[in-house]
Amino acid sequence: MIKVPYLDLAQQYKTLAPELGVLHDVMASGRYILGENVAELEQEIADLCHCACGVGVASGTDALVLALMALGVGDGDEVITTPFSYVATAAAILRVGAKPVFADIDAETYNLDPERVELAITERTKAILPVHLYGQPADMWAIWELAHEHGLAIVEDAAQAIGASIGTEQVGEFGHAACLSFYPTKNLGAAGDGGMVVTSDSGIRDKVDVLRCQGERERYKAEVLGLNSRLDEIQAAILRVKLDHLWAWTQRRRDIARAYDAALGDLPIMTPAVMDDAFHVYHCYTLRVGRSERDELRQHLADRGIDTGVYYPVCLHQQPAFWDGSVQPNAEAAAKRVLSLPIYPEMSVEQVGAVVDGVRRFYE
Ligand SMILES: *Cc1c(COP(=O)(O)O)cnc(C)c1O
Q1: Relative orientation angle of helices 22-29 and 233-264, to the nearest 10 degrees
Q2: What pLDDT, on the 0 to 100 scale, is given for residue 1?
Q3: What is the whole-number distance in angstroms between the Cα of residue 90 and the centre of ligand 1?
Q4: CA-based R_g, the chain, Å
Q5: Which of 151, 233, 241, 312 has its CA 20 to 30 A from that of 331?
Q6: pTM of the full predicted structure?
Q7: What is the three-class DSSP state of 12?
Q8: How much is the pLDDT for 291?
C-alpha cells in the first residue's frame, strides 16, 4: 500500500540538503538575529509581493499584531474579518485591544463575502482583515473599494497565499500591509517559526521595524511599547534557499490540483471553486462533501494510508476566546463539510493516483 502523508517535509529536506551549506556560513558569521540574510530575504519577498519593503518578524501571528499596531488599531476599534480562518487571525485583532467583527464567507470560495463586510461596517470600524484562505486570494477589488469608500485600512492575512495573485496584482499589494507566515507547513516554510510584514508604505515599514525591536530606534531609548519579534539569520538563510524553488513548487501544487479536479469532478462533491482571474497557490486542496459523510470519507482514506486535514472544524466566532453570539451560516456549514486532500510538491504521481482512487472508491 502506498502511504500518503498530508505533508512530507523530511522528503523535501532530502532534495534541499545539498544547498544547505549556507547554514554553516551563518554559524561561522557569528551574527544570528537580523543580519544580511534577513535583509536580503526582506527585499526578495517584497519584490515577489510587488511591495516596496518587507520586515522580518518572529511569526505570522506577530506579523498581524505588528501590522495592526503600526496602523494604530487598538482599544475601541473594530476590525472586520472572516470567521473561517486559523485562530491567529482573530487573536491578533484581540491582542491589540480591538474587537474582531466577523462577516460571513462566500459559500464557494470560503473567503470573505464583500457584501457581508459592507453590512458589518460601523462608526468604530478601523480596518478590514481579509484572509486568502487555502491559497486563493480573497475578493480584493471589492474589498478594496469598500475600504476606499469608508476610509478603512486593509491588512491582508496572506499566511497561506504567498505567490497568489488576481490578474497582474500580487497578494500583498492590495493592503496597506500584508502578513506572511513561514511556519514549516506553509508554502514557503522555515525550519521553525518566522513571518514577515510587507508594505509599500515607508511609515508602516518604519513603525514595524521599531516595534519588532522593543520599540527601540536607538539602544535603551524605547520610544513606544514594542515586542521582541525578529527573524533569525538561520531561518532567513533556509527561506532564501527555498524561495528559489517556490515557483516550481507552486506549479507542481497547481498540477496536482488540476489532476484532482479532472479525476473527481463527476463525483457528488464540490472541488475548489476558483475565482475568475485568480491564481490559486493551493496551500490546501479542499473538497466540500456531504455533512454526514465527511468523517466517514476521512476514515475510509485513513484506512488506505491517506492522511487528510480539516481546516477548520470550529469557526472563530464559536471558540471561547472570540465568541460573540453571531450566526455565520456559510462558515458554520463549511466547518462541517470541508476536507483537505494531501497536496505538496514532493508528492509522486503514484501518491496522487492513490488519493484519487481512494476518494472514488468511497463513492462507488
Ligand atoms: C499560519 C497562519 C497564521 C499564523 O502564522 P504563524 O506563523 O503560525 O504565527 C495566520 N493566519 C493564517 C490564515 C494562517 O494559516
Answers
A1: 150
A2: 83
A3: 11
A4: 20
A5: 151
A6: 0.98
A7: helix
A8: 87
